[in-house]
Protein: Archaemetzincin
Amino acid sequence: MYKVLIVKLTNIDKNVINEIVNHLSNLGFHVDVLGEINHINITYFDWERSQFKAEKILEFISNKFKNFPYDSIIAIGEIDAYANGLNFVFGLSTKKFGTVYLSRLKNEFYRKECDIQLFINRAKKEVTHELGHTLGLSHCSNPNCVMNFSNSVQDVDKKSAYFCEECRLKLNINNKR
Ligand SMILES: [Zn+2]
Ligand SMILES: [Zn+2]
Structure:
């Protein structure tokens, strides 16, 4: 069984974290949540763009938690971030370490009415997606698979929160190595 650690970069609503943990547990992962918040260094903020630099945050998390005995460590924050060459990212990951940025998963970001359940569903999908990357999965062409690439919240809403059979198989194979 894969061991996953969730790390908070900002304060995040308890219900949101609980629903993410329940979802990942249902998928068969062992999930722990680190109690304290790991605040992001202000030098990772790009004042011209008003966004955080995702690569910097990923590097910070990778260094800080490199000796932690988990298969995957996912840092989540209610912030907006971008990566080199992209206007924004919902998340950024390498092997073992992942980050998820929640600001753009909220309807309020697009001046639409707040919808907490929709926000939670989107957060569950994006955390599961980045978790897949940390365990070696690439993007999947199955439009229903959680590993399908999302360029907008509309894309996120279209896919499911689950791995397709092919991706599940790959996870199982990796797990047995
Ligand atoms: Zn991806
Ligand atoms: Zn898939």
About this structure: The CA atoms of residues 9 and 38 lie 5 Å apart.
